[in-house]
Amino acid sequence: MPTMHLSLRQTFLFIVLAAAVFLTMPFVLFAQDVPTELEYLFDDVFALVEEGDFDAALELVNAAIADEKNAEFLPFLYNLRGIIYYYNGDLEAALDDFSEVLRLDPDYADAYFNRGSIYYSENNFDEAVDELLQVLQYDPVYWQPRIDILVRQANNTGDDLVVAENYTEALEQYDFASAMNSDPVYGYTILTNRAHVESMLTLYADSIRDYSRLIDLNPLDAWNFAYRGFAYYSSNQSTLALPDFYQHVRLAGENANETVLEIIARLDPMGSEADTNLNRQSDDLILYVSDRSGTSSLYTIRADGSDLQPVPLDGRSSYAFPHWSPDGTRILYTRMDSSLADSDIFVIDTDFLIIASESAPNFSERITTTQLTMSTSADIGLGWSPDSSQIVFISNRNSPDPQRADLFVMDADGSNIRQLTEAINVTTCVFWSDRGSQIAIEGTQPDGAGNSGERLGISVNHGKG
Known about the structure:
Blueprint: H1 11-21, H2 39-51, H3 54-66, H4 74-87, H5 91-104, H6 109-121, H7 125-136, H8 140-163, H9 167-180, H10 184-200, H11 204-217, H12 222-234, H13 238-252, H14 258-267, E1 278-282, E2 285-290, E3 297-302, E4 309-310, E5 318-324, E6 330-336, E7 343-349, H15 352-358, E8 369-371, E9 379-384, E10 390-395, E11 406-411, E12 418-419, E13 425-432, E14 438-444, E15 455-461
Antiparallel strand pairs: 1-2, 2-3, 3-4, 5-6, 6-7, 7-8, 9-10, 10-11, 11-12, 13-14, 14-15
Helix pairs in contact: 1-2, 2-3, 3-4, 4-5, 5-6, 6-7, 7-9, 8-9, 9-10, 10-11, 11-12, 12-13, 13-14
């Protein structure tokens, strides 16, 4: 339940009010910065609301609105009246008052939050997102934690709806939570829930998209491969399901899902090794890693299993960890010359997909490949920022222990490298928040003796520059 933004002298009144209305209303709305001239009115109104005498409370506020000497305080008074209407269950009247507040003062942030909260309670999710995003333009440090409470409520409501097998409404809750979430660690949970519900609703293209993102974020989670494989298999894309099922078995070992093993036996009775490590999907084109040429190389393939093409690299090294940029114009990958300990990060422009289709004689000369790191350490690219302007990677370049990797960020052209962690062994689980301000990582922190400690999740505050 969001906390009302009040001055110290009003805190007790809020606590009493919250106790009175908690059982009937899902949110506490906001009335901040009470004018000194109206503190007496504020106290009287909330005393009446505490008693459940909404008519008397409305009468006091209506009189104040009609009083010409309060003209400069009308935004506050309409916001206050809207809150009373809200707690009295008259949401339409509350919305009208909050809209009047914004007509009088378009920068009155409380009214945007209050109106957004009502839209959310009415399941008008698009309108709720618009209002709450507007709030964040004023004071994101103050408002985002309060919006995060709505995000958690939406995710929990989605969970309850799944239990009730109301998957369509659950998906709406998860979509809202995903749109407004700022916590990358919690965002992974929301994305997982949404992907599962999309599969339950047979929205396989959407679930494949979300499972692909989860695999990008944590390629060591066996179950994401199984779930995406089921989505491919259920949408008659067995060619793409089989590699995911094999990867699930490799990661899960003896804990591999029995249904996965049964499907593998049907699809591949000879037990041949399927290509593994399918990666991010862009429209109907998928990027993945295979050792079919003798070394780990990158390939693209259509979602229906057709048009298999190698990514045109030099072929003298092994390649891994491919990531499509969110804008679809570049592919990030890691080249290993001798081993993972001697690796660097590259990008290749996706123009090669068009150039290759032209069958031009100077095909290789027209491909743009850029080396971003040139160190003697292990540099491994892990993904892109949401706007494709930055790249996150792990490296042991500054670590006294070559087995320990820290987190770094650089601009998409390889410049402006910044180290974000120290004394934390970062694994390959990374989640960049949709607004680009935070990065969630998974890793281990050494104990006092220098040994690897317990596995932990960490959210790193991050901004450009």
